[in-house]
Amino acid sequence: MRVKVKLGPRAAETLAGFSDADATDFYVQLSRVREAPLKYSRLWVDAGYAADLRWFEFGTGVTKLAIFRYDALAGVMSVVRCKLAKPRRTRRAGDPPTTERGA
Question: What is the spatial distance between Cα 97 and Cα 15, in angstroms, rounded to a whole number?
Answer without folding.
Answer: 30
